[in-house]
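Re: Re: ligand-bound prediction request (bumping)

Still looking for help on this. To restate: I need the protein modeled with magnesium ion bound, output as structure tokens. Inputs repeated here so nobody has to scroll up.
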Amino acid sequence: MIELLTPTQLDEMRPAGRFVGSVLSALEDAADVGVDLLDLDALAHEMIRKEGAESCYIDYHPSFGAMPFGKVLCTSVNDAVLHGLPHKYKLRDGDLLSLDFAVSVDKWVCDSALSVIVGTPREEDVRLIAHAQEALDAAIATARPGNRIGDISAAIGAVGRSHGLKVNTQFGGHGVGRTMHGDPHVPNDGRPGRGLTLKPGLVIAIEPWFLHTTDEIRMDEDGWTIRSADGSRGAHVEHTIAITDGDPIVMTARN
Ligand code: MG
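Reply:
Sorry for the wait, this slipped through. Here it is.
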């Protein structure tokens, strides 16, 4: 069932979105050469404790996961792009790091992701992140009442293809609110004018991710981390947004 939230409920959700944004900002600042992925997870965990928030990841065990996730943050480095399980690894100069984070605050869940370059950037990585961000911006601009999920999907796919990228649709966005993953599914490519009609109160996470030279992925031996099939790097950005009568609310906007 797809729940449409009232304006009051959307207001209740805002602290969760603000908190998720603030944690990702802190992690982005902390991600530096020599910093261990486990230190980033620990920092996020400490912020969760102080806030009295609840991690959506730590006990998460969906059908595609080999075991409960056990961490509060996804850290995907270089050719890893989604669901990266934090492990002992010190970030190196030039690494492309994607961070994905979801918690509930006062029972409302928000979910967001960003990609950042550690140390000296490679130009193609800067471009890849910009393309993912451009797709997210285009998708959010499409998220208005009367449009459909397919319009959002098509906006993402069109941006990817305009930059010569192949777009994988195995993992995409999703409904979010009382739980981390709900209906509707929001694929990262699709046909305009198809799918669920957007209505005020619908809350979804939109999450374009692109790989440099492939749309094929493989699962890491850890049972979670998803990598490009050809070793090329990936970028992933995500916001939780609410459809309103006017402009969408970007719940997880960062300062
Ligand atoms: Mg996410």
